[in-house]
């Protein structure tokens, strides 16, 4: 504890990963922290669900991290999570049901990428060369692009096989926005951090235990031990300026970190900071649908398999929860950037996913839909030229959340970084 804020009363509104990262960092700085969470549990959009008899303890959606997500990994480790136990960590490998895709060998990032592309088992040599050439151009330009450019436009010159097998699945997985509507600038930033920073930065980390055990539960334990007041089931209804302090519901605080959803942050700041509020209110959202399919005795060729999505094939990835050690015989089919599927209805989406499952794999027992989860506002749509609201709203009032202006799309890492940045900016 550095004690710099020892006389300060700080409110953190929202107990997702951003709010938890803020609360941990602010209490580390000696502040007296109160955390308000509207739900009955911490974790926000990355949490385990209470479950039912058939599907106990599922997560609200499958999450993956990459090695470059250093802030979240360090925070989990500091909270006592054993990262090696908690995650299956593998070098980047895009395995498809019937063929291998890009697979990066260990080694220095640039070399590993070049060797991985060159060894691709099914792309023609010309396609591999074109991708290496495009990547060199991105590298030479410092992985920056015109803010108005979409990922599809950025990659127009690449052959169809590269776009379909690599760019489109990576884009929708990282930005939760289809390539045609996704920001090239943010996509290149993720590529840079994943493929071209330190060794292991492109590694995939897939949780081997429930999401709540990775953050919500250890953070709750840590914060309680630090004397942080955690108010669960408490929605902040009102936020008002009072002298040089703030009133949060009926409590008075010196400074406030708004770590709630962007729409709630917009509501709470409508009068206090109308310009900021409008920017937060204007964000558009993309859903993620997870179709849990059960087939006792079955296993996939890998814990995570990439899929070719199509007009009748919704999912882009499927995870074998048996191989991940949580739910044998259960498979999480993930549909990111799912607006069009939500519009077609969840029954139709589940049926099409089941048909996709039957077509793609051989099953030891007939697969059936166990549960369908739709997070309709899963992440903001990461579109070209998007104006994201800044961290500073007003003196003593800061925003934290995956949507706050920053280099990353809506990710756990973006949320944690935003939370820690807000706590550092407390004065
Ligand atoms: C299905 C799904 C899959 C995803 N997959 C990935 C992935 O693979 N990798 C990845 O990095 N990211 C993924 N994400 C994104 C990631 O979950 C989010 O970026 C991250 O959890 C956002 O955290 P946050 O703290 O910014 O916001 P939130 O988690 O939304 O937290 C905000 C909290 O504020 C609370 N709140 C709101 N209003 C109030 C109020 N008035 N008073 C008190 N509390 C309030 C809410 O209840 C909530 O708990 C996924 C998201 C979803 C939904």
UniProtKB/TrEMBL annotation:
<dbReference type="InterPro" id="IPR017830">
    <property type="entry name" value="SQase_HpnE"/>
</dbReference>
<protein>
    <submittedName>
        <fullName>Hydroxysqualene dehydroxylase HpnE</fullName>
        <ecNumber>1.17.8.1</ecNumber>
    </submittedName>
</protein>
<keyword id="KW-0560">Oxidoreductase</keyword>
<feature type="domain" description="Amine oxidase">
    <location>
        <begin position="18"/>
        <end position="425"/>
    </location>
</feature>
<dbReference type="InterPro" id="IPR002937">
    <property type="entry name" value="Amino_oxidase"/>
</dbReference>
<dbReference type="Pfam" id="PF01593">
    <property type="entry name" value="Amino_oxidase"/>
</dbReference>
<dbReference type="InterPro" id="IPR036188">
    <property type="entry name" value="FAD/NAD-bd_sf"/>
</dbReference>
<dbReference type="GO" id="GO:0016491">
    <property type="term" value="F:oxidoreductase activity"/>
</dbReference>
<dbReference type="InterPro" id="IPR050464">
    <property type="entry name" value="Zeta_carotene_desat/Oxidored"/>
</dbReference>
């Amino acid at each position: 504890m550095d004690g710099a804020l020892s006389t300060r009363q700080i409110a953190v509104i929202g107990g997702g990963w951003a709010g938890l990262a803020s609360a941990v960092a602010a209490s580390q700085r000696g502040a007296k922290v109160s955390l308000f969470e509207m739900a009955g549990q911490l974790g926000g959009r990355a949490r385990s669900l209470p479950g039912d008899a058939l599907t106990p303890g599922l997560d609200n959606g499958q999450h993956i991290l990459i090695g470059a997500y250093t802030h979240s990994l360090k925070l989990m480790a500091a909270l006592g999570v054993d990262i090696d136990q908690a995650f299956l960590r593998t070098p980047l490998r895009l395995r498809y049901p019937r063929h291998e895709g890009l697979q990066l060998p260990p080694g220095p990032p640039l070399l590993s990428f070049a060797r991985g592309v060159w060894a691709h088992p099914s792309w023609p040599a010309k396609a591999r060369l074109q991708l290496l050439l495009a990547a060199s151009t991105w590298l030479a330009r410092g992985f920056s692009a015109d803010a108005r450019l979409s990922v599809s436009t950025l990659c127009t010159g690449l052959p169809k096989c590269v776009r379909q097998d690599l760019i489109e699945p990576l884009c929708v997985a990282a930005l939760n926005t289809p390539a045609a509507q996704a920001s090239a600038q943010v996509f290149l930033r993720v590529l840079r951090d994943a493929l071209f920073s330190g060794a292991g930065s492109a590694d995939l980390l897939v949780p081997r235990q429930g999401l709540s055990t990775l953050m919500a539960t250890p953070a709750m334990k840590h914060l309680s031990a630090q004397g942080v007041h955690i108010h669960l089931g408490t929605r902040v209804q009102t936020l008002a300026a009072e002298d040089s302090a703030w009133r949060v519901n009926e409590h008075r605080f010196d400074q406030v970190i708004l770590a709630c959803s962007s729409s709630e942050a917009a509501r709470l700041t409508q009068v206090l900071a109308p310009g900021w509020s409008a920017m937060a209110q204007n964000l558009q959202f993309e859903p993620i649908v997870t179709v849990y399919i059960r087939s006792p005795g079955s296993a996939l060729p890998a814990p995570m398999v990439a899929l070719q999505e199509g007009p009748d094939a919704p999912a882009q990835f499927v995870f074998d929860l048996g191989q991940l050690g949580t739910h044998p015989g259960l498979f999480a089919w993930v549909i990111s950037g799912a607006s069009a599927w939500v519009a077609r209805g969840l029954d139709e989406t589940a049926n099409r996913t089941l048909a996709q499952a039957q077509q793609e794999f051989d099953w030891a027992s007939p697969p059936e839909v166990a549960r369908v989860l739709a997070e309709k506002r899963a992440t903001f749509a990461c579109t070209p030229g998007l104006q994201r609201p800044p961290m500073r709203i007003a003196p003593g009032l800061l925003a934290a959340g995956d949507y706050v202006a920053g280099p990353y799309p809506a990710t756990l890492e973006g949320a944690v970084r935003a939370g820690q940045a807000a706590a550092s900016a407390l004065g």
